[in-house]
Amino acid sequence: MADACGVGQPELWVRGELPSQARFAGVRVGGLSGIDYRRSRNDYLLVSDDRGAHGGGRAYRMILDFGSGQRVSTRLLDALTLRRDDGRAFASDGESGPGTDAESIRAAANGWIYWTNEASGENASGPQLLRMRWRDGKSRPLALPAYLVPDRHRGSGPRDNRSFEGLWIGRDGAIWLGLEAPLLEDGAPPTLAEGSWTRIVRLAAGDKGGRDYLYPLEPIANQLPGRLADNGLSEMIVLPGPRFLVLERSGSQQPDGGFRYTSRIFCAYPASGVQAGDPVRLEKQRVTDLNALGPFDNANFEGMTFGPRLADGRRSLVLVADNDFRDERPTIFAVLAVR
Predict the structure, then answer these.
(1) How many CB atoms lie within 10 A of CB 318?
(2) What is the full DSSP assignment across 59-76?
(3) pLDDT in tens, 196-221
(4) What is the residue extent of each domain of the chain?
């Protein structure tokens, strides 16, 4: 199935950086793990996965200017501290109470802003899907199907720190979640030898419209002996069909404890033949290997959104890399040109 998502072969239009020590409103900016373009305002929403070491989970409004095709110019407009529904702050690591590990952010046409919280463990209540207004950051968790809520015995449900990495809000208001790794009952995560299956979930509106799609993850790209490594779904865009533009990110721990990353974009679509029952199995084809497109300096790409039209008429696909608040690693923005 050639070019199933209709984006063609992406080309690097331009890249840009935010220094690792950049600050806004007195707080260090980093850990940017989600991005969404709002055409009505011509701005971008971003979310940081900081768990408290640098001020806690925050969302940002930013202007990205890349029309000239020479570099990405960044301008932060506003910052918002993510808060619980009652207005209280989320707990930092080591404190009692629910914490944050924000992974994706999307704006809906009705003004609501949705974000995913991957925080889990003894004191957390994640993973969560939350909804807020920009004015105060008060975030209300939304109800989830029972199988997406961790079992307290850890025998089923999402894996700790491997859950709601992908998020999409459809034009019809449908909410989609992409799981980084398989549910516990769906089998083991990818290994160096073989991939595995994770889920993309269309949440039901009332009692109608819910459906699961099984997405085939690649094997781990690289792994050093005795070191950690993984591969998982990092973000997604839902296209009509449905078809899915999926960002996979594979990390490999290095001798110094840091990670090197391989990031790839795939197009996924329902497998050929009759699709009966639920979940629906997906097939996929590689769209691009980001490491081969440009000098991304081992970037940990985690956020992806369509942006505005470029000067030559093509659409921009904008990605942001989480710098993990590492002093030697800037936040990288990559703008790709697609059909």
Answers:
(1) 22
(2) EEEEEEE-TTSS--EEEE
(3) 999 999 997 665 678 999 999 999 99
(4) 11-338
